[in-house]
Automatic annotation (TrEMBL):
It catalyses: a secondary alcohol + NAD(+) = a ketone + NADH + H(+); a primary alcohol + NAD(+) = an aldehyde + NADH + H(+). It comes from Nocardia vinacea. The keyword Metal-binding applies. InterPro entries: ADH-like_C, ADH-like_N, ADH_Zn_CS, ER, GroES-like_sf, NAD(P)-bd_dom_sf. Pfam families: ADH_N, ADH_zinc_N. Belongs to the zinc-containing alcohol dehydrogenase family. Its cofactor is Zn(2+). This is alcohol dehydrogenase. Its EC number is 1.1.1.1. Signal peptide: none annotated.
Length: 370
């Protein structure tokens, strides 16, 4: 099968031919139907060898939708034939955070003693979904997507999940009188605007320096859109209750901190390398919170999928063939991708009968459950 793999640190990935993996034990094999591209991939590509404890070659892709076409002997066979999206954080399932349903903060995902980042999940330490097929360790990392289009489902695994988790953590300050700000209306920010509306935010302001993106923000539900936060200050009344920074530079973080209302929250999601000095009496409003949420739990992913299936969350996605991966990554690096870029692999040859058989098995299983 074809796979987009990182073969050397600090280089662009390559389209290669590799063996189709065989599921064992509790593993499930997906035929990948769509896989989103993310700026996180660029951080992995550009990293020094000492940064990640990831074996190479590594198939990239942590936003993955697919169909379950095969299962190991110990796997839950009822998933065969199901359309799914993959929860890309493969926690241990045993530590105290996993037991709390906070798998995205699994204690086994901490950096190694030497500072290298440990494998997290598909495309981030384990082979991902920029391929025609992918193995998932267990059904607990899957969420059913029903008839949702794969190109819509795939970005929910990171862009949708991360935005939802960042908003949900601050649901206690989101109501009809809340003033919320989204900085960076890209692949995640355009979803955050809609999720804030879903949570009942009274007023949502969008900040982005790209005119076409600001137009999209207004269309997707923001009340106003500005090229920078300074221009939005007159709209903030006595400050913002919640600011979501999907850029994460020092400039965006510092300007956001100054724009908070007393008791306001700043959630920094973007990873552009910015730093913010926090402390008492450093110019911040009284009673502030600064948050750095990470991805999201499986329950958050299920909630995002439900929103999309119900038509209350619209993903701005453009599809491309898997073979165009390197070119689209370059466009992502240049900042010319609007919304989410999603790659569609060609179907696996020789697997058609197995896919159809899996669907028939799944259909029978559903009838039995009824």
């Amino acid at each position: 099968m074809l796979a987009v793999q990182l073969t050397e640190w600090g280089t662009e990935p390559r389209l290669r031919e590799v063996a189709v993996p065989e599921p064992r034990g509790e593993e499930l094999l997906l035929q990948v139907t769509a896989a989103g591209l993310c700026r996180s991939d660029l951080h992995v590509m550009d990293a020094a060898e000492s940064s990640f404890d990831y074996p190479l070659p590594l198939t990239l892709g942590h936003e993955v939708a697919g169909t379950v076409i095969d299962a190991g002997a110990g796997a839950d066979q009822s998933w065969l034939g199901e359309a799914v999206v993959v929860h890309g954080i493969w926690g241990c399932g045993r530590c105290r955070n996993c037991a709390r349903g906070r798998e995205n903060y699994c204690l086994t995902l901490r950096p190694r003693a030497d500072g290298r980042l440990a494998p997290i999940g598909n495309g981030l330490g384990y082979h991902g979904g920029l391929a025609q097929a992918m193995v998932v360790p267990s059904a607990r990392f899957l969420v059913r997507t029903g008839d949702l289009e794969p190109a819509i489902a795939a970005p929910l695994a990171d862009a949708g999940l991360t935005a939802y988790h960042a908003v949900r953590r601050h649901a206690d300050v989101i109501d009809e009188s809340a003033i919320c700000v989204v900085i960076g209306v890209g692949g995640l920010g355009h979803l955050a605007i809609q999720i804030l509306r879903h949570f009942g935010a009274g007023r949502v302001l969008a900040i982005d320096n790209r005119p076409e993106t600001l137009s999209a923000a207004l269309r997707l539900g923001s009340d106003a859109a500005f090229a920078d936060l300074a221009s939005a200050i007159p709209e903030l009344d006595e400050g913002a209750d919640l600011i979501l920074d999907f850029v994460g530079t020092s400039d965006t973080m510092e300007s956001a901190a100054r724009a908070l209302a007393p008791g306001g929250r700043l959630a920094v999601v973007g990873s552009a390398g910015g730093r913010l000095g926090v402390g008492k009496r450093v110019g911040l409003a009284a009673g502030w919170q600064v948050d750095a949420p990470f991805w999201g739990a499986r329950s958050d992913l299920a909630a995002v999928v439900e929103m999309a299936m119900g038509g209350t969350l619209h993903v701005e996605a453009t599809t491309y063939p898997l073979a165009d991966a390197v070119d689209i990554y370059q466009r992502l690096r240049a900042g010319t991708v609007t919304g989410r870029a999603v790659l569609v692999p060609p179907p696996l040859t020789g697997r058609t009968r197995r896919v159809e058989a899996s669907r028939q098995i799944s259909s029978v299983a559903r009838e039995v459950r009824r």
